[in-house]
């Protein structure tokens, strides 16, 4: 297994400080010892509109010269909802991302079915599924044309379980659509229980189903800090919801499943990337962490993952 860093970690979204450029990340990760860099296919990093042919060639050459593999291109598409203009924009976007992956020499593109936010509640689940399937069919055809593999992530909404990913891949029916099954999302969906005595067996059962489909994996960490109150509009009362916060890698939920997870990956013969991502904010004493803190986490995360893979 190889270890990459998702560029969202240095995007400036989740810390106090400026984003790093793609070029600076390549140099930094080479110095730290990462095997690869996963690029976020949006600003401030690899938005297809911002990188012309010359820029793409220069990024490839710089990565090659620093022995950094461009591990994956992370797309942020949303094929849910009936709005035809929104759908056409998302189809155009994913087409350009796939084309850019080809130009950058990147083998896989992480895709969503329905983005990361809430779907239109006026549309049925079944209709959202149908629309997502139609979008992925078109995207998978373009992926074949450009020699790229799509990695469908087990990320809600619509993909609310690993079972949904399996069903969607089967229904799309294209060799170019495979899977990105992230362990932390298995916990959040309830597909696995990190405290179960059957943890290893449950992970093995799930990942064995993806043995020939698994092409990319993200790893990050979080913890449920407490419950929080959610006030309903119109004086309708209050609900409680889980308060999930990002944690230093190994200190939260992932730390509880990490050894079993890596043992399972080795058993099924997975030899792709584990891509560390800092993809949400972390607060210390109610203050957003600094760039320097994130930079330390990036370095320590590599050490943690290398030790984990070597000892299991």
CATH architecture: Alpha-Beta Barrel
Helical amount among residues, as a percent range? Answer: 40-55%
Rg (C-alpha, Å)? 19 Å
- Physical arrangement of strands within the biggest beta sheet: 1-2-3-4-5-6-7-10
Strand content bin = 15-25%
**E-strand count:** 12
Structure class: alpha/beta
Count of discrete structural domains: 1
Weakly predicted, low-confidence segments = none
Shape: globular
Mean model confidence by pLDDT: 96
Find the CATH topology.
TIM Barrel
Distance between the termini: 12 Å
Tally of helical runs? 9
Along the chain, the helix and strand elements come as: EHEHEHEHEHEHHEEEHEEEH
CATH class: Alpha Beta
Q: What is the CATH homology-level superfamily?
A: Divalent-metal-dependent TIM barrel enzymes
Structural overview:
The chain is α/β, with parallel strands linked by helices. It has a single domain, classed as Divalent-metal-dependent TIM barrel enzymes (TIM Barrel, Alpha-Beta Barrel). It has nine helices and twelve strands. The chain has helices at residues 22-32, 53-65, 84-104, 125-146, 162-172, 183-188, 199-209, 253-268, 291-311; strands at residues 2-6, 36-40, 69-74, 108-111, 149-153, 177-180, 214-219, 222-231, 238-246, 273-276, 283-284, 287-288. Helix 3 (84-104) runs parallel beside helix 4 and helix 7 (199-209) packs across helix 8 (253-268). The radius of gyration is 19 Å and the shape is globular.
